[in-house]
Hints:
By secondary structure, chain A is mainly α. Chain A has helices at residues 2-33, 40-65, 73-89, 94-117, 123-142, 152-159, 167-185, 187-197, 199-204, 209-235, 246-256, 268-287, 292-313; strands at 147-148, 161-162, 165-166, 237-238. Chain A binds chain B through residues 2, 5, 8, 181-182, 185-188, 190-191, 193-194, 197-198, 200-208, 264-265, and chain B through 300, 302, 320-322, 324-325, 331, 333, 338-345, 349, 353-354, 356-357, 359-360, 363-366, 387, 391, 395, 408.
Amino acid sequence: MVKETKKRDWSVFLRGMQSVIGLLGLCIVLSILSPRFLKWGNILNVLTQTSLNAVMAIGMTFVILTGGIDLSVGSVLAFSGMVTAGMIHSGLNVWIAILIGLVIGTVLGLVNGLSVTKGNVPPFIATLAMMTMARGATLVYSGGRPKSNLGTAFGFLGQGKILSIPVPVIILFVVFIIAYNVLTQTATGRYIYATGSNEKAAKLSGIKTDYIKLLVYAVSGFTAALTGMIVTSMLDSASPNAGNGAELDAIAAVVLGGTSLSGGQGSVVGTIIGGLIIGVLNNGLNLLNVSSYYQQLIKGIVILVAVLIDRRKR
Amino acid sequence: MPLLEMMGICKKFPGVTALDDVCLTLDSGEVLALLGENGAGKSTLVKILSGVYTMDKGQIKINGDIVDIRNVWDAMKLGIGIIHQELNLIPDLTVYENIFLGREKRDSVTKRIDKSYLKQESKKLLNRLGVDIDVERIVKTLSVAEQQMVEIAKVLSMDCRIIIMDEPTDALTTDEVQNLFKIIQALKCEGKGIILISHKIEEIMEIADRVEVLRDGKYIGTKVVAETSTDELIKMMVGRELKEKFPKVKVPVSDVVLEVRNLSVSGLLHDISFELRKGEVLGIAGLVGAGRTELGKTLFGVYRYSGEIFIQGKKLNLTSTSAAIEAGIVYLTEDRKEEGLFLDKSVSYNMTLTILKAFTRLLGKVDTRKETRTVSDYVQRLRIKTPSISQTVENLSGGNQQKVLVGKWLMTQPKIMILDEPTRGIDVGAKVEIYNLINELKENGIAIIMISSELPEILGISDRVLVMHEGKITGCLEDSEATQEKIMRYAISTGGLDGEGN
């Protein structure tokens, strides 16, 4: 009995580590194949690119931990970015424009949460509808044209550096620290896991699972909007097509990080590693001049193989 | 020669002997009732006959020939049809599609399903049953009684010689039951053999020719209905000796802690009133489906109710489980794995989830040191056997899992604990530990409501027993006057004690 438990702990540990091992393996292979890979400039580049996906994926982790899914993040990203750009164009203070963008994302997330809890709509459908609506709203608001030239103050968010570290990486770090602490250290974090692990039992334990679900969708909407700010700032332009398909990269990062799609199991540490795997892979394939067609193919295979290995261990 | 003979049937499930050397005979044109308490083995026996389970030992003969039933198809080919307690229809298909599901007649050339033939045949079958149901209706729009008729039509369409009905009257109204009995009579006249599982003795007396009684997986006896009485059958059903030890402690009862007045939940509970005093264990007996769990959950704020609930004289408005917990009422579920535990989480996680607020410090951070101390304290007090408090509860035994849940609720410092089947799926030894624990709680002034299907447990642990039937309280007994027979009487009929001289 005791022996069995120990063996179990080992396999749990290995399972937790396998994505790290995968990431390290990937880095080693790429550093051999391409001498440019380990250059400081390239590493910062990888981290910056990864931060876009990873901030959103952290919000997605909250939703997936409760057993839900959020397909609307890419569109929410585009809409909040577009509104903020519009506000800046109309002469509003940059910080207030950013705040409005973030509030919009959070509110759209809350609407998702309300559809799921009060409306009893399956998360897949509720957020699919939001994905279409938010994209439509972006096109209506922008007339289908990008909004560019947003000024240097706004540009700081995506292009600036603090102590030679890109601001997006710092934002990711802050978001990660907050998310990690909420999920592992607070009562709310435990309620999130409880809701995904056994919703019936959570309800019968006096946990207001509806409130928890509202919360996670709001968090996901917020992180999507935050990513929208960074992307818009980085490109100095809000495009109506921004974040197209971004929800899939976010889900891929969460799943590669070992979080169970049925909820209750997983961590944001895993999500960061999952995000890095995708980021490193993108970067490496670019460095090796692999055509973008093949890149998609390879990314798909990596995700499938990773999840297959994970399944087999369970 | 009998139509069906089953001899020496044995079936074991991990940890339980479900059937031990059970036999059964059935003639053509006969209605045989199988009678027994919950868990007596009735359903297991017919599931073996219908190919759902395979037996470990034994022999089945049909018309004198030994047959081998390995799966549901074998049983169907032999002309054995079963109408399950939980109906097995596809809710989104039509009546005729359900009746001929998997046996659709196809056009020989085009291979398309011959719908007009199926509709026509379905109509004929339903007419034979004397019911008027449009064969093109979607099954989920039918009432339960109508759905049951469709199931019967389905069995008839297979041209079965033996028809098994598992608790067919449970969901039916009195009129619908009478209609069903007419159909059973008609089938009997056609020469079918019918096995009826039921725990309603009056119904058995009305429709069956013979009754076979099972108890704890053993064959007790068979009686011709005309030559037996309700009393005799009840005695046969429950007549076991109390095998387990029930360490009962008497505590002087004091004030009324909980008062329930005219509590009703639409479709589940009707006009329930009772009182619960500090220092007593109130047992709630009844058969499966009597509304006991629903009563427990209503007091825990799960269902919307009408009526009044008072705790220590103060009227409560139980709109949520958290409101109930705050008022001092907790509910230990009958279904540990589905509704109680977070199986993939640790002992500590499971125990403190409801009282995390008590451990939170600045910024909502949980004080894990304080948490560990509290959990370790409870693990010791409840004698929970676990290598550590970070062990996932999945790996604990049933008894220890139950104790984890008891500990979780004790931490909320409740005034009233509702225990729903507290010893279900727990070894005999561990049961006694749970009983001791219940006594300890009682001594510590917690009022306890214990819902149980095990009569010896109800009698052995409770200070007072409420009996429920169809969402109503049909009897209330002090432990000095309670017997298994009396409880059974209240549990099987609303008529109560007519015919008994007290």
